[in-house]
């Protein structure tokens, strides 16, 4: 068991860790990687929408959409989706370098349809796509599967999509400035569930704002190499950012307000062996800051996830746990600083079907009007530099 002493109220407390962090070796279905992927490079300053050269465009004039490639017209009509898809389809067949489509104008797309992006395609939407009606399956206004070198530079969505962006088994993805003010659905889903023997690799998301989604703002599953700037989630039904079985990830900031209200979801959630590389949990998930106000949980690590460092947390008045770490390994919470105010307890827990927590460090926190509890006792757990204000504590 980890060894700790109780922490005094309103006083910082330092504790010596007796053992270094260890890596828990577990059987895995993900397979041992020969070398981790490198996440996409961080973004330069975002260009204005539509600026620069392009190979095709879809333009709205009055109620008529016209898609052009050079001097040729490839679509004229009233259907925004058809116009954008025609512009995309007019790009060079079999290309091995990225070509760009610019969309100028706003319109509606059915939730039962999609704009499909083939490999080596950049899409820049200078307008708003409003998603109407209903659909099923993996439909999304922006969709790509089994492709590489995909880029969405700007995208503004409203309405009720199943997914705002859906990407499956892709490589080398850049999502730039995304603004989704929804009334249903999931914002961005990126996964490898079409072929789980292959990772989706090298994904970059610069800045995404999602409000009103009934599910998550951003979710990944089966991604190796992820770089995220900022995820801003407002009044979404489930998580702000959910990472499933994702490795080699760097996230600058998660800013969530009322994410997952009335649920067990969290502003930031890691699940399904997230951070597991081969049979262990080396530090490979790095998060700069998590902010949560209201909602469900603040930070939630579950189902054999770990290998994570979260530098800073600001969590207030969450309806469920401010922090829940359950069956996780090598997690460092508030490596630099953090505050927890009100809301549910900070809890270290375990389910019997998975190995218990190990190598968990909780540090550099001021916890006010809450509670701290560890049950059952984990292995090599450290609580260090915790200031408690009107906060009870029960640890091993």
Q: What do these coordinates show?
A:
It comes from Streptomyces lincolnensis. InterPro entries: Pectin_lyas_fold, Pectin_lyase_fold/virulence. This is Parallel beta-helix repeat protein. The longest helix is centred in the N-terminal third of the chain and has 10 residues, at 80-89. The strands form 2 sheets. The chain has a 16-stranded mixed β-sheet that branches. Strand 2 and strand 3 (72-77) form a beta hairpin. It contains 1 helix and 28 strands. The chain is elongated and about 70 Å long. The chain folds into 2 domains: 58-215, no CATH class; 251-395, no CATH class. The protein has one helix spanning 80-89, and strands at 56-61, 64-69, 72-77, 99-104, 107-110, 115-116, 121-132, 142-145, 148-159, 163-168, 171-182, 186-191, 200-211, 218-221, 223-234, 241-244, 247-257, 266-271, 285-293, 297-301, 305-316, 321-326, 328-341, 344-349, 358-368, 371-374, 382-389, 392-394. The termini are close together. It is an all-beta fold and 396 residues long.
Quick description:
By secondary structure, the protein is mainly β. The protein is built from 1 helix and 28 strands. The radius of gyration is 22 Å and the shape is elongated.
């Amino acid at each position: 068991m980890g060894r700790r002493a109780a922490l005094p109220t309103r006083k910082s407390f330092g504790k010596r860790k007796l053992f270094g962090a260890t890596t828990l070796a577990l059987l895995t279905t993900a397979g041992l990687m020969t070398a981790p992927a490198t996440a996409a490079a961080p973004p330069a300053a975002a260009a204005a929408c539509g600026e620069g050269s392009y190979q095709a465009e879809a333009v709205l004039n009055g109620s008529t959409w016209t898609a052009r490639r050079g001097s040729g017209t490839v679509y004229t009509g009233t259907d925004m989706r058809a116009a954008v898809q025609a512009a995309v389809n007019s790009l060079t067949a079999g290309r091995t370098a990225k070509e760009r489509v610019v969309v100028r104008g706003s319109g509606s797309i059915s939730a039962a349809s999609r704009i499909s992006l083939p490999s080596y395609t950049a899409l820049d939407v200078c307008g708003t796509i409003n998603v109407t009606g209903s659909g099923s399956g993996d439909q999304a206004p922006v969709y790509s599967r089994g492709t590489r070198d995909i880029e969405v530079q700007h995208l503004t969505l409203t309405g009720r999509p199943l997914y705002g962006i859906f990407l499956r088994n892709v490589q080398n993805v850049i999502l730039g400035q995304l603004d989704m003010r929804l009334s249903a659905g999931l914002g961005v889903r990126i996964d490898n569930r079409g072929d789980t023997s292959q990772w989706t690799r090298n994904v970059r998301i610069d800045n995404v704002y999602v409000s009103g989604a009934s599910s998550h703002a951003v979710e990944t599953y089966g991604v190796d190499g992820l770089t995220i700037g900022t995820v801003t989630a407002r009044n979404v039904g489930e998580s702000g950012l959910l990472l499933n079985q994702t490795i080699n990830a760097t996230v600058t900031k998660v800013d969530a307000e009322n994410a997952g209200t009335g649920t067990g979801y969290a502003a930031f959630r890691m699940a399904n062996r997230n951070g597991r590389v081969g049979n262990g949990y080396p530090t490979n998930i790095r998060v700069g800051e998590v902010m949560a106000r209201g909602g469900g949980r603040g930070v939630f690590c579950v189902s054999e996830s770990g290998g994570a460092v979260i530098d800073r947390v600001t969590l207030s008045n969450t309806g469920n746990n401010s922090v829940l770490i359950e069956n996780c390994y090598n997690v460092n919470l508030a490596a630099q600083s953090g505050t927890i105010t009100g809301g549910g307890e900070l809890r270290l827990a375990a389910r019997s079907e998975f190995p218990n927590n190990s190598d968990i460090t909780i540090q550099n926190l001021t916890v006010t009007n809450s509670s701290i509890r560890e049950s059952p006792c984990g292995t090599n757990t450290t609580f260090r530099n915790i200031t408690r204000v009107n906060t009870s504590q029960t640890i091993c």
